[in-house]
From TrEMBL:
It comes from Pseudonocardia alni subsp. carboxydivorans. The lineage of its organism: Bacteria, Bacillati, Actinomycetota, Actinomycetes, Pseudonocardiales. The chain crosses the membrane at residues 52-69, 90-109, 153-176, 188-208, 214-235, 247-267, 273-291, 312-332, 344-362, 374-395. This is Acyltransferase family protein. It is an enzyme of class 2 (transferase). It holds the Pfam family Acyl_transf_3. PANTHER family: ACETYLTRANSFERASE, ACYL_TRANSF_3 DOMAIN-CONTAINING PROTEIN.
Amino acid sequence: MSSPGGAPASRTTTTAGGVARSRFRPELQGLRALAVLLVVVYHVWVGRVSGGVDVFFLITGFLITGGLHRAAARGGVDVLATWRRQFSRLLPAVTVVLVAGVVAGFWLLPENRWMPTVRETVASLLFLQNWELAHNSVDYAARDNAASIVQHFWSLSIQGQFYLLAPLVVAGVAIATRRDGADLHRRLTGTLLAVGGASFAYSVYLTLVNQPLAYFHSATRIWEFALGGLLALWISRIEDRPELTPGTRAVLGWGGVAALVSCGILLQVDRAFPGWAALWPTLAAAMVLVAGRSGHRFGVDRLLSGRVLRTIGDISFPLYLWHWPILTLTLVRTGQDRLDLEQGAAVIAVSFVLAWLTHRFVEQRIAALDVRHALRTGGVLALAVLVAAGSWYGLAAARASTPVLAGSPSHPGAAALSPQFDLASLDPADAELTPSLVQAPDDWSYHRTSWDCGPSEHDAELEVCTVPAPAPETSERTVAVVGDSHAQQYAASLAVIAEQRNWSMVGMFRGACPMSVRSETVADDQGCTDWNAAVHDQLVAMHPDAVLTLASRDVRPGLHEQTPEGFVQAWQRLDAAGIPVVAVRDNPRFDFNVVDCVARQGRGAPDCEVDRHTLYQPYPPWSAVPGVPPNVVFADVADGICDPAVCRSEVGNVLVYMDDNHLTATYAETLAPTLATAFDHLGW
């Protein structure tokens, strides 16, 4: 994937003056091919992440740093020329795939995926896709979004940022070296060790405390490029060591390949990386590069330098670009989560054909142009991406506009499940669904009110958000909403009540961490346990009039709903502090994306419904749990989400779910009367 970076597959040796000299390194193309094949095969058939992207990062650092070091040693780095050269080769293939993605996405993707895809397409063009996904990883509304057709551009975005940063760093080191007469090789080595070491330490830390964010964060990946750069600076000296006999090189090379192939099998890359675990594929790739041309008849370089892998290495970049949108669109259109052998083979075959065509008619033709014309071509294609994405956004925005009000006679939402409601008065054929399918992925409770967030006075690591009462000078009540995203979604319900009764709201939220005395969702998540302890201290200090949180969790097919002991213990601690609790029953979690289903099957489709008896037991789980303190009032919303037989995708012309397990803010607002009744039971 790193081939468009502007550096050929090279082998570095050191001249008498200590300057690295470039020589062709054919086994590097084979390593590229192996990495991209692992990425494609794991994505298509295994449904896991392989670690191949980390190999691309190391190779990019190896090639770019080596080239910049040689340029600096010859007299200096022309930063602007380097940028022009890099992006003139990078942009054309990228923009061709993005334009094709916009066109195909418009025709083939369901409407609920339009807005996220447009945003991510523009982010990908600007080499900011990793930051878009990093934002989504900490945004409860986006965490469960289905993978977009351009999600894989996150790694290319980090590479693009490296292409911008690396020339500046090397140029700065070269200037400082010439000024004080230091050795360039030594100074650059020290810089890479310092920057890479800091990045690695931060990567380990952030992976422990927030792995989803760490996965896409640029700073947690810099060390992989730095490792490749260090290898470029020192590989010629390592290769010349007498200990590296042909037999040793053969063992080293095959060991690296074996480690690389097994990485995705033995590690949960998407959940453990980067951190310490990313050393596995990067060091495996480094072993292969150090082994180099082994001179042994059984050396792995004989395989990697072969015609087949070298050819795949030549098209590795467009193959990486094409395989993911082809796979994602296939999964969307078939409604499957995984492809069988024949379907997967077809996806890979189409990806190879498109990759070859892109290499032959885009990359090679661009390579034949001078830098100015190549960059101009890429700019024109980039403009085409922006025009296409902007047009798609305009259409999506128009369809997202819904001039209907939830709770109105035509869109009663949860009120339609009341036994007193006249269902005959509703005709879905005469009423638009609200929120619209386009709007649904962004219809999150947190977006409905203006939260003012900042660190707690008692714990700087705890974020506390507030919404003042409509008339703060006369407000008499403050209600705190606490817990994970399933508690947070009821902030939309509470906001309706707070508006009517002039209450202020406080929010403390952490993904996958409901209010408890321990971590309930992820076992032994010390960060969640610590957060819950900090929340309790904050609640005791601020002493709100009530706390709104979850009463149960894990409502999914198979009757898994429970009220954990940790919930009850947290309520007991609040009871001791004299703080009332309104505990809301959890909503069902489906095993499919509800909005995707409605977009594919249509409104009211039976395939988008789940029998209630497979989700909810007749009696709520807290009724059988001992030790529930007297300060707790329960809000059982089951009858406000499901009818006696079925849990539907829409109720009262209002879409219930924004994904597979979160309520739309629009529907949550129609549950306000149920929560208001619970608050009334507090005697207010």
